[in-house]
Amino acid sequence: MDPRAEDEATVVRRWPPQMRMAAAVGWSSFLAACLGTMLTFAALDPQLIIDGMDRGEPGAAPWWFTRTGIYSIGFFLFWAVAAVAGLLAAWLQAGPATGGDGP
Amino acid sequence: MNEGTAGAEVVSLYEAHRKVYPREVAGRFARLRTLAAFALLGIFYGLPWVQWNGRQAVLFDLPARKFHLFGLTLWPQDFLYLSWLLILAALTLFFVTAVAGRVWCGYACPQTVWTEAFLGLERLVEGDRPQRLKLDRQPWTTEWVLRKAAKQVLWIAFAALTGFSFVAFFTPARELAAAVQGFQLGGWEAFWILFYGFATYGNAGFLREQVCMYMCPYARFQGAMFDHDTLIVSYDPGRGEPRGARKRGVDPKAAGLGDCVDCTICVQVCPTGIDIRKGLQYECIACAACVDACDGVMAKVGYQPGLIRYATERELSGTKTRYLRPRVLVYGALLAALGIGFVVSLSLRQPIGLDIIRDRNALYRVLPDGSVENVYSLRILNKDDDAHRYAIGAEPAGLFQVDAEVVQVGAGEVRAVPARLRVAPGELGRAPREIAISVRAIDDPALAAAHDTRFFTPDGR
Which residue out of B10, B13, B133 would a mutagenesis test of the A interface target, given it has the greatest number of A Cβ atoms within 10 Å? Predict the structure, then answer.
């Protein structure tokens, strides 16, 4: 086999811009969500939410409303909110579809 | 096909590549990388099973809201330490980057380590690079299906183990293992094992170097910490150029060639697929695979190693590298100060917290016997692993009559206690405005905390 043919497989795979943007937004919002979750739940004990839902009647809150459950839901909420911000930022950064000095 | 027919006489090129490629795996940096990967993966998979004083040594017990780190227990109120630790980690990264470039990326980053592990499994099933290339060019033969299926089984099993181990840092590992065996895994635990397993599978199996190129913030800003004295994986163009193939025994100088035989093996071993000979690129994760590969080729053709090596820009341009420079000194000093502060603060940390809130309704109350009373609400936080009974006192000692119960506070709990301080009429002249209220564990007098507050009297001092 020709060594140059092997090299072709070594050529770096480049992603199309949309995929790069999705990856950048997804990952940076993930990091932001980690930070948000940590800060929020260091100060707020989810048990307070569960007790509030129970209203003195233990078991009234749904089974998935445990501390771990609320951490998890909180994390995904943060992730979604941060991703919206990231998508908006990326979209604005891409600039308007047509420039002012068009031909 | 010209080069193919010339292959019999020409050193390196494809024939040599076949022989050198496996040698790359045995190079000194490859050994170091494998060692680091085994150590780090060992810690990740092993640590949840280590016991300390009868409980899991490292457990970020989120359901119970406390972190166990060997003998230390941290509560949400100790969040400061966690952020301090994160800042220390970031500073360490800056310091190391300034001195030695991206060693984090090449040796310690989870993305690199798990990619190495997945690549290892891939090699195990599909063989080394030429065999993998050949396999991927094949149509769907039985061999293709079997090898691919075997690889997927290994990958998925490894990813599932990774997901389990991750969750075992947050919920007790032994209970988790028992729950998995008994098919009684909680919904959220199952979800996170799958989620993390899937993320590992996707990141290490498929995304690989794309994570470094498109997703990693550190890959983008690490360049800001580089200077001319930072160690980077570099190709020595002064020695290598002009590159080109040559026959064995030909004197490169006579042929007008540098030491680079242009075998492209450095490109073939690169996990991010770049050509290091084009100079420093942000895709380079400094894994030094090309260093090992090139040294192997150099040994084979009888040249000195180090055509590609860890070097500084200054060294390549022929001047001396300055290791001690302002950037390194500043990062180093900051790191040392914060590190020492962290250790000191952690060792002086009292597992007790006290907040004092003054009664909002009245500054003071004059009792029928003429003595003056101030009311406070104390919040006592027990950050110890055992419950304690606390007694409440006030400074200056002997002046106040303290009316407060001895309270029992459970491990990790907070209790609010009202406290009334009274000063007898005859003593009023001695009562200062600034006083202190203290709590002390009855069973362990070393466990104490005090807080400044104010005491008001009718004469308005």
Answer: B133
Q: Are A19 and A61 in contact (CB under 8 A)?
A: no
Cα A82 from chain centre: 6
For residues B291 and B305, the answer to whether their CB atoms sit within 8 Å is: no
C-beta atoms of B267 and A10 within 8 A: yes
Separation of alpha carbons B447 and B427, rounded Å? 30
Q: What is the predicted ipTM?
A: 0.82
Is the alpha carbon torsion for B104, B108, B113, B114 positive or negative?
negative
Lowest mean pLDDT among B89-93, B305-309, B318-322: B318-322
Question: CB-based burial of residue B181 (10 Å sphere; 0-12 exposed, 13-18 middle, 19+ buried)?
Answer: exposed
Residue percentage of chain B with pLDDT more than 70 = 94
| pLDDT, position B196 | 95
For residue A49, give how far its alpha carbon lies from the nearest alpha carbon of chain B (Å). Answer: 14
**Interface of chain A toward chain B, CB-CB under 8 angstroms:** 1-4, 6-7, 9-13, 15, 19-20, 23-24, 26-28, 31, 38, 41-43, 45, 63-64, 66-69, 71-72
Beta carbons of B187 and A63 less than 8 angstroms apart: yes
Residues in B lying within 8 Å of A, measured between beta carbons: 1, 3-4, 13-14, 17, 62-63, 65, 76, 79, 82, 130, 133, 170-171, 186-189, 191-192, 209-211, 214-217, 264, 267-268, 270, 272-274, 283
Global pTM? Answer: 0.79
Query: Does an H or E element contain B180, and which?
Result: helix B173-181
All structural domains of chain B with their residue ranges? 1-349, 352-454
The Cα B419–Cα B396 span in angstroms is 16
Distances (CA, A) of A79 to A37, A45, A84, A93, B197: 9, 20, 9, 20, 19
Pair of tokens at residue B457: 């009297």
CA distance B112 to chain A (A): 17
- Is residue B401 helix, strand or coil? strand
At residue B23, the pLDDT reads 37
Per DSSP, the residues of B241-295 read PSP---BTT--TTTTT--S-----HHHHT-TT---GGG---TT-----HHHHHHH
CATH assignment of B352-454? 2.60.40.10
Q: How many cross-chain Cβ pairs, A to B, lie less than 8 Å apart?
A: 81
